[in-house]
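Protein Record: Sequence and Backbone Structure Tokens
======================================================
Tokens: labelled as protein backbone structure tokens, with as many entries as the chain has residues.
Task: work out the structure tokens from the sequence, keeping to the layout shown below.
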Amino acid sequence: MRRRDFLSAAVLGALAAGLPASLRAAPTPGVRLGIDVLEAGGFAELRGVRCGLLTHPAGLAADGRRTVDILARAPGVRLTKLFGPEHGFDGKALADVKVGHGRDARTGLPAYSLYGATRRPTPEMLEGLDVMVVDLQDIGARSYTYVSCLRYVMEACFKAPRPIRVVVLDRPNPLGGEKVDGPGLDPAWRSYVGSHPTPYVHGLTLGEHARWAAGTPGVLELTEAERRRGVLQVVRMSGWRRSMTWLSTGLRWHPTSPMVPTPQAAVGYAMTGLGCQLGDFRHGHNRTEMPFRFLSYPRRRGEEIAAALDGRVPGLRLDVRVMPDGTSGVYTTVTDWATCRPCALAPHLLRQACAWGGNPFPRASKSERELFIKHWGREADFEAFRAAGARTDVEGMVARWSSEHAAWRAARAPFLLYGA
């Protein structure tokens, strides 16, 4: 979540038309979000209690109404406070920019920032609440910070002298619920861009993520007594299956942050975000075109990038594109999502960056090194690139990730809500 990017309607149409069937399957009628299911059930989980709501502009019902407005008008529900994650309650702030407290213009409710002076709700913010409702659209990658915000909220609510019940209104994982890929997280490198020890692409909805975190000792920073007395409820979706990526849900996408304005960008985040951490590869173009999907490299034509990298990752093709200003690069086209290893592109980008521009890893400052490892999840891979540069055994690195994925699938299995 680094820069502001938006796609024109024409570009969006062209990109969607080029998606493989596995990502642009016919929409499935009847997928209802957690907020829709909650409303259909008469808000039973929230009647007669004082509620806070953690949400952002993508916190909408399937018909486009804001969850804020739905709860504010719900009979028997007392919505009293709002909370916003990174990018703010209104979703306008750029990545890593502190956001102040505010007020929702439509309802007049106070909106507390959880990405400003504090990232954890304070006892004063939580005072008077019986329930904290969470309605955030995640994108399925570990370093996207909404799962970290969820974690901090759960910890604060469970630690409260009178524990505050947490209710998560579930939403689809836009990458689907079957895809698992990328490096795991070494607990020694837990941070706000890597708060949970999962593979980079974890295959969980936000509600499943909350269930796994609450039900697995050591994931949340709580005493065992605090963890056990905490109360979590997930209002599950109806009609969603693990095999569904976003474009097969029939739901309209709403930007989750400035640089993820489309579901195509959400897929790209898992492919290129890590690979552009160091070296001179860039994703996106002039902050306006193809965020996380268009790759360029200084003084290299798209044909050269494709020749060096195309075919390295199954299910992925690099198509040469030239932008209107003459910038030449490649667009990452998914040809088969079932076989695609989205995170596998990242180490190939880094190895090629070492070959073309010299090894950037030994030159990395302390802060650059730490930021890279926090996103990537493990120090060993940084050190492998630092030592070997263009000779790094990327294939062996990716194979080691794969050997860990079966253990993750087994660990998450008891907490899945939509089948295995």
Observations:
- Residues 1-19, 21-28 have pLDDT under 50 and may be disordered.
